[in-house]
Specification:
single chain, alpha/beta, D-amino Acid Aminotransferase, Chain A, domain 1, Rossmann fold, 3 domains, five-stranded antiparallel β-sheet, 14 helices, globular, phosphoribosylaminoimidazole carboxylase activity, isomerase activity
Length: 389
């Protein structure tokens, strides 16, 4: 059995109007929804595709509603957004063929049912707007009669970079925006105060940034800034290996199932956090030795880098959380875990970053060679006798 990502629907006049994939809900709610759906379908001992409808309460509970033993309207987005669409997997299942992959091949997608307006011309105006929108694919049902509220077509808008990118694409069409229900706009932040472009969506984080104490935040924020620059969604929190061992255990054990792909852990002194996390999760862990007042972070470095065989931790330089963020971006772009197009885009952005870094050094070298070391040092305010990394 395979389960497609949990999606979030908005109804209009008791008809499914929009479907957001993946659902923008807390990870534990998504996990519970998948668990309930899989349990319900498994109890039938049948074949085919099943649509399982549930409610998520404000308190975080998931309530089972009903099941449809057929391809479902809420699964139409899979045609463009998933490796194998629901219709093909339905046929594979009833024919006894191997099921296709159900993972999304795009960061986020929104399916909108085109409901009949007062006239066929008005109905087709929405379809025309969809055809002009980047990332949109229209499916016209070929119904001869237009009727108010009747399902006439649907279109799916895909966005490689997640929810923020999806909102940007939807915002290019006033006609489509006007047709979106307010709850859909609210979920995507359309019409809310604009966020900086680099602000990631934390609904489905790919990287977890953790630290042993809030005093480490000044160091670890550099990793967060890099991930924001590359538009990689992340979460950031405090997990102490010594003061909150149960929290450490729960965080590490649930990280993979919550969708994280990489964990960046910063710690100082005894610095057991990165190693303990690595021992408890199958995900790659990057350790950041935090500089301390006693041994300037050398104690942190030795504690993190001297891991026993079988418990790997990729360790960066003392205090260099920026490199941890860059390494996480490279892992995501070059080692899988993302849809191919999204991974390729991330690799391209990393190559641009490297090229810009090279150009910066070459400009400095040219200036140094041109004005001489004395004038160059003077322009730096006398220079620094401390080597920085």
């Amino acid at each position: 059995m395979r389960a497609y990502p949990v999606v979030q629907t908005v109804q209009k006049d008791n008809i499914c109007h929009t479907v957001l994939a993946p659902a923008k809900l807390p990870p534990r709610v998504l996990e519970e929804a998948q668990r309930i759906a899989i349990t319900a379908v498994a109890s039938l001992q049948s074949r085919g595709i099943f649509g399982v409808e549930m409610f998520a309460t404000a308190e975080g509970e998931v309530l089972y509603n009903e099941m449809a033993p057929r391809p479902h309207n809420s699964g139409h987005y899979t045609i463009e957004a998933c490796d194998t669409c629901q219709f093909e997997n339905h046929l594979r299942a009833i024919l006894g063929l191997p099921l296709g992959a159900v993972e999304m091949r795009t960061g986020a997608a929104l399916m909108l049912n085109v409901l009949g307006e007062d006239s066929m011309r008005e109905t087709k105006n929405i379809c025309q707007a969809a055809l002009e929108m980047p990332g949109a694919a229209l499916h016209w049902y070929g119904k001869a009669e237009n009727r108010k509220g009747r399902k006439m077509a649907h279109f799916t808008v895909s966005a490689q970079r997640g929810y923020a990118h999806l909102a940007e694409r939807l915002a290019t069409s006033p006609t489509v925006l006007q047709n979106l229900a307010e709850p859909t706009k609210a979920v995507l932040g359309i019409g809310a105060p604009a966020m900086p472009k680099s602000e990631p969506s934390h609904a489905s984080p790919l990287v977890g940034i953790i630290m042993g104490s809030d005093s480490d935040l000044g160091t670890m924020q550099a990793a967060a800034e890099v991930l924001k620059e590359f538009e990689i969604p992340f979460e950031i929190t405090i997990v102490s290996a010594h003061r909150t061992p149960r929290r450490l255990f729960d965080y590490s054990q649930s990280a993979a199932s919550r969708g994280l792909k990489v964990i960046i852990a910063g710690a100082g002194g005894a610095a057991h956090l990165p190693g303990m996390v690595s021992a408890l999760t199958p995900l790659p862990v990057i350790g950041v030795p935090v500089k301390t007042s006693t041994l300037s972070g050398v104690d942190s470095l030795y504690s993190i880098v001297q891991m026993p065989r079988g418990v790997p931790v990729a360790t960066v330089a003392i205090g260099n959380a920026k490199n941890a963020g860059l390494l996480a971006a490279r892992m995501l772009g070059g080692c899988g875990g993302l849809p191919p197009a999204q991974a390729a885009e991330l690799v391209a952005r990393m190559e641009t970053f490297q090229s810009e870094s090279e150009s910066e050094v070459l400009r400095k070298a040219e200036t140094l060679e041109g004005v001489g070391y004395e004038q160059y040092l003077a322009s730096m305010g006398g220079g620094s006798k401390v080597v920085g990394v």
